[in-house]
């Protein structure tokens, strides 16, 4: 099922690698009429904050956060030299993979991916790249300068196109493509290390999206060089799309030998390296930015907004960069979001949606519509963008294996692949809050674009840390052929989503993206990347849904529900799940969480997470492995346990709010009986609690005090809060004369 972004609008727009000339101009003249999709409700959406002041503020913000391209002239000088060097690297002979590895290691070059454990018959040959192109936000001119850096820093993506002769038709199977890709990158590393560039530039490996099967080379000026700017050029490899049959890379195909199940993530990873597809996307955005002047600035606004919420680059100068899992290419994802709002869905018979002249020319208006679309997006649905002409999209059903899908204009790529569903929900929740602010009619610019807290933990309600070892990765991925950290994190995020359900509105995983040397050290017998530490530190942040977060029961399906849902619930929870009948007569599978007092109830989330990590996923029950601060400071604000019996008649933690509410209800009855006893002239119709102690919202649970020894109690415990309430009397025209 496709979700429409809004009502269909103009006719006549066609696509081919992007945008063709349309039969009607996208940007109308000053006398043009609003298109059909721009009804009153849509126009009214951006009226409250679309005044001159808001537009000025937005314009100032984009200017302040845009990269000053004139400061990166040294890269403009460097790029043609680098391109000439890469295209001129000598070819190698066709040799077995083992021979290639030994040759590279003999030259002091490390291969960024370990070779297959079992011997292989296929061979490798290096042929110089076909072409090197600048792609991404640098070329589109919609890059932003991160607010986490004191000085502007540019990340520039260079697409290095591997030629057809490097690959064979069957290389898409069982990681063969990725191993050849790694050897090809190592040959480029060898050339760079022995070039004249090595004296002026630093080289390192890192991994695209944190995937160890997709290494890239980072090039940056040395710190003591004469470079006047800070930038990192990333060499990203691509292959000619014609080498692999597209049908074999559909999400439903199984291309890993260890399993007969579909391998959608693996297939998408290969497809996303296609030269033709990457250039199609780049051409699509380039032409869209030409036809719609607001496109680039809107993309910048979206990046700034997201960076200042939680989806930001956290580190400043630390080489071990931190990124949210799934959002390493957030700028690329944002470009498609903005394009989708402009161009609409691929529903059969649906016209292209062009949101009128105002959306094409006003970045503030277009940005608000992107926020509005995000706020209404069901992140667990399948959404299809308008398909480019001459593309060959996969059938809609191919994407059913994904938990979430936003399908690109080629119809082949799921843009949400690798992004945890919980993190997508977090993005939508942030958009909902922003949309509410925008509709308030107030001056909300400061609230919408407030500067972020650079502490990941402070951005969430709950935060905990997990240290993941290589043994943990092997255990989590025991059913997977690719036992990698990225796969382990995907398994962990799926389990988090199942365990927490509607208790959270979203969650995010923050991990390190370390860089490693290109050089091979002889004391390492394998070409494995040197681990920066024994553990990978993963931070997890949760945003709670207060309506469900502290429920004592996790409800599952009833016995007459779908057998698949029932089996899934019971398999996940195991012996924690049992069948129960509830007061309304319903019978459901459920999980009961035991608590002994209200404070423990506030820690149900902690109880669930510890059960998931320690009992189900078998992490060590050690504070150095699974660590959090949930409830850790309760002891500092609670009364001394040795003084409880001297201060209270009953322990407040044990009786909770039950006792005070019982007293309040009795007090209410006595007040209402005053009229009956003739003590007051008007009857009391209602007694409304005002005190936080009577509304279950106080930090401390109130308890019955011992007044006998009150003078001898410690001074710090003598405070007696007043429990205020409001009385409402009956109305009477005779009052007070008839009293």
From TrEMBL:
Pfam families in UniProt: Nrap, Nrap_D2, Nrap_D3, Nrap_D4
Subcellular location: Nucleus, Nucleolus
Keywords, comma-separated and alphabetical: Nucleus, Ribonucleoprotein, Ribosome biogenesis, RNA-binding, rRNA processing
Gene3D superfamilies: 1.10.1410.10
InterPro entries: NOL6/Upt22 (IPR005554), Nrap_D1 (IPR035082), Nrap_D2 (IPR035367), Nrap_D3 (IPR035368), Nrap_D4 (IPR035369)
Keyword RNA-binding appears in the UniProt entry: yes
Top-level taxon in the UniProt lineage: Eukaryota
Parts forming coiled coils: none
GO-annotated biological processes: rRNA processing; tRNA export from nucleus
Domain Nrap protein residues, every copy: 156-277, 294-449, 459-617, 645-737
Molecular functions per Gene Ontology: RNA binding
Record field: transmembrane: none
Predominant subcellular localization, coarse grouping: nucleus
Protein known as: U3 small nucleolar RNA-associated protein 22
Gene Ontology CC: one annotated term: CURI complex
The family this protein is said to belong to: Belongs to the NRAP family.
């Amino acid at each position: 099922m496709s979700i429409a972004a809004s009502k269909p609008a103009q006719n006549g727009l066609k696509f081919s690698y992007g945008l063709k000339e349309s039969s009607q101009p996208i940007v109308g003249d000053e006398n043009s009429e609003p298109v059909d999709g721009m009804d009153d409700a849509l126009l009214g959406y951006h009226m409250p904050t679309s005044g001159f002041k808001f537009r000025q503020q937005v314009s100032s913000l984009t200017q302040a956060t845009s990269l000053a391209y004139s400061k990166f002239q040294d890269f403009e000088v460097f790029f043609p030299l680098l391109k000439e060097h890469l295209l001129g690297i000598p070819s190698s002979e066709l040799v077995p993979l083992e021979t290639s590895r030994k040759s590279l290691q003999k030259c002091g070059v490390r291969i960024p991916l370990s070779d297959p454990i079992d011997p292989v018959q296929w061979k490798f040959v290096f042929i110089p790249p076909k072409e090197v192109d600048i792609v991404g936000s640098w070329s589109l001119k919609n890059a932003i300068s991160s607010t986490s850096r004191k000085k502007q820093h540019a990340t520039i993506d260079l697409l290095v196109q591997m030629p057809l002769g490097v690959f064979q038709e069957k290389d898409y199977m069982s990681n063969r493509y990725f191993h050849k890709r790694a050897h090809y990158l190592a040959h480029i590393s060898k050339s760079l290390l022995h070039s004249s560039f090595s004296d002026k530039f630093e080289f390192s490996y890192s991994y695209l999206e944190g995937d160890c099967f997709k290494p890239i080379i980072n090039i940056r000026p040395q710190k003591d060089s004469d470079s006047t700017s800070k930038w990192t050029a990333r060499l990203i490899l691509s292959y000619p799309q014609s080498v692999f049959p597209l049908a074999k890379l559909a999400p439903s195909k199984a291309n890993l030998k260890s399993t007969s199940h579909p391998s959608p993530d693996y297939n998408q990873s290969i497809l996303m390296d296609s030269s033709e597809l990457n250039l199609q996307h780049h051409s699509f955005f380039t032409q869209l930015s030409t036809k719609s002047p607001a496109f680039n600035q809107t993309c910048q606004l979206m990046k700034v907004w997201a960076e200042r919420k939680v989806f930001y680059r956290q580190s400043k100068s630390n080489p071990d960069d931190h990124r949210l899992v799934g959002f390493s290419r957030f700028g690329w994802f944002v470009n498609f979001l903005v394009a989708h709002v402009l161009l609409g869905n691929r529903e059969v018979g649906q016209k292209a949606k062009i949101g009128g002249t105002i959306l094409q020319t006003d970045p503030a208006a277009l940005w608000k519509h992107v926020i509005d679309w995000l706020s209404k997006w069901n992140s667990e649905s399948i959404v299809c963008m308008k398909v480019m002409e001459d593309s060959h999209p996969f059938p809609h059903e191919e994407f059913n294996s994904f938990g979430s899908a936003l399908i690109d204009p080629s119809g082949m790529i799921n843009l949400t692949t690798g992004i945890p569903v919980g993190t997508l929900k977090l993005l939508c929740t942030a958009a909902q809050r922003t949309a509410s602010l925008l509709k308030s009619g107030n001056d909300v610019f400061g609230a919408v674009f407030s500067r972020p807290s650079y502490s990941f933990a402070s951005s969430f309600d709950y935060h905990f840390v997990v240290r993941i070892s290589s043994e943990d990765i092997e255990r989590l991925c025991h059913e997977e052929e690719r036992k990698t950290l990225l796969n382990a994190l995907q398994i962990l995020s799926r389990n988090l989503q199942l365990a927490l359900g509607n208790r959270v509105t979203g969650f995010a995983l923050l991990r390190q993206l370390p860089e490693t040397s290109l050089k091979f050290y002889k004391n390492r017998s394998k070409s494995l990347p040197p681990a920066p530490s024994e553990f990978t530190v993963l931070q997890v942040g949760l945003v709670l849904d207060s309506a469900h977060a502290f429920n004592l029961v996790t409800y599952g399906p009833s016995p007459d529900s779908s057998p698949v849902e029932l089996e899934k619930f019971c398999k996940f929870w195991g012996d924690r799940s049992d069948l129960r009948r509830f007061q309304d007569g319903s019978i459901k599978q459920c999980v009961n969480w035991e608590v002994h007092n209200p404070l423990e109830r506030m820690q149900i989330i902690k109880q669930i997470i510890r059960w998931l990590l320690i009992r189900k996923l078998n992490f060590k029950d050690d504070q150095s492995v699974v660590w959090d601060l949930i409830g850790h400071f309760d002891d500092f604000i609670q009364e001394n346990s040795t003084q409880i019996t001297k201060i209270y008649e009953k322990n407040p933690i044990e009786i909770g709010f039950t006792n005070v509410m019982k007293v309040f209800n009795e007090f209410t009855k006595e007040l209402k009986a005053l009229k009956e006893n003739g003590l007051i002239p008007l009857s009391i119709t209602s007694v409304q609690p005002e005190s936080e102690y009577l509304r279950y919202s106080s930090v401390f649970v109130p308890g019955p005090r011992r007044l006998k020894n009150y003078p001898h109690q410690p001074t710090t415990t003598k405070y007696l809060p007043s429990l205020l309430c409001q009385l409402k009397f009956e109305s009477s025209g005779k009052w007070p004369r008839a009293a």
